Amino acid sequence: MQRQRGLGYAAALVGGATLAGPYLNPPWLMALVVTLYALILWRFFDTKYLTYTFVALSALYGTGLLPFFVFATTLAMLVLGELVFQSGADDLNTYLYYIISTAWAGVLVMAYLHERAILTIIFGIIAAVLLKVILLRYEDSLVIEGIGTAMTMWLIQDLNYKADLQMIVAAVIVGFTFGYFAFRAKTADLSGLFSAALVGIILLVFAAPQGPQWFLIMLTFFILGSAATKYKYEYKKRIGVEQGRGGARGYRNVFANGIVAAAAAVLFGVFQNPVFVVMYVGSVASAAADTLASEIGVTGGTPRLITTFRQVPIGTNGGVTVTGETVALAGGSVVSVVAMLLNVITFPMMVICIIAGFVGTNVDSLVGATFENRGFWGNAGTNLMATLGGGIFAVALYLALAGYGLA
């Protein structure tokens, strides 16, 4: 009850700061007021981590690193979101209420300040709910949530990317629908739901007007990966190499396989350079190739370590089989052919992306054998290096062939 009262006073602080913000200058003066009020809340209501968050955001605003709109919106989202979680359980319904409350916070601040920043608000909401589901069990998570949400909104606003409102709404609906059905099908957990929605929205918005085609390319990878995960699942479970949690992917897996593709979509949206199209398809082809090689390749007999070609136990990082290499080539080919059929890439680009997908999965094996086996990072880091390697290789090969007029 005491914590709820503290949050009520925090909500009053945010409301007052939002109303007074346009008239209280310089920024450091508002930052000082918010900081002092937050310290008082800590003294009387033990709102330690909320105070830390308010002080950190006030410092960013007071030094001119955050615009007032982002500052006020972040504070409002945090407070209303925390109010939702006072009596809520860690389930899908609670996160739905969290999204609704943070959306209202963003819309009210946007309306009062006469901002037109729908895209900024949407990405702020997704960042907030994703960080919440990932960090909920940590007592001090609120500081990371606040700074992460603010930095996300600041980045989107600073890009100043203009997107059609109807496309934004459609992207949100499609992105969350995609994530929800992945969750219901048990191919993604809650963190996977929101991270998949984020990647989907990025693709649909920044790759416009070809956003739906880009999304379908990613969906192709998702279908291939899900099918490969279920392939001989009981056998893989018996030998101890199955995907954990019944094959449900979390945020680490989604970002490891999709962050390079999402970055390529943003870069394409900003610069409209075809090199980022090749980067996108090459990275997705690598993700598909690597997933099929991992999930199906382990059923293809005793693997050999890619660095020494010595036989190693099934499931060893860096182990490759003929079956794995074959399905890797097939997976990258399917993604690349789909991209060509959707008129996202040309035939020469398709060939480049097929090769890039094969290269990417072998980058995964090399990195797994040399770094993951030595404990430098986990499987998600290896997957990220594979998609990055495939994307970069696709760009390099495209530029080399374009120099000779072949791409």
Describe what this molecule looks like in 3D.
The chain is mainly alpha-helical and 407 residues long. The protein folds into 2 domains: 2-159, no CATH class; 212-403, no CATH class. The protein is 75% helix and 1% strand. It has a two-stranded antiparallel sheet with strand order 1-2. Helix 1 (2-20) packs antiparallel against helix 4 (68-84) and helix 15 (347-370) packs antiparallel against helix 16 (379-403). It is globular and about 65 Å long. The mean pLDDT is 91.
Shape: globular
The number of distinct structural domains comes to 2
Number of strands: 2
Helix/sheet category: mainly alpha
Helix content, binned percent: over 70%
Percent strand = under 5%
SSE sequence, one letter per element = HHHHHHHHHHHHHEEHHH
> How many helices does DSSP assign?
16
Mean pLDDT: 91
* Main sheet properties: 2 strands, antiparallel
Gist of the model:
The chain has 2 domains: 2-159, no CATH class; 212-403, no CATH class. The chain is built from 16 helices and 2 strands.
What is the topology?
Blueprint: H1 2-20, H2 27-45, H3 48-62, H4 68-84, H5 92-112, H6 118-135, H7 141-159, H8 165-184, H9 190-206, H10 211-230, H11 233-238, H12 251-271, H13 275-297, E1 304-305, E2 319-320, H14 322-341, H15 347-370, H16 379-403
Antiparallel strand pairs: 1-2
Helix pairs in contact: 1-2, 1-4, 2-3, 3-7, 4-5, 4-6, 4-7, 5-6, 6-7, 6-9, 8-9, 9-10, 9-12, 10-13, 10-14, 12-13, 12-16, 13-14, 13-15, 13-16, 14-15, 15-16
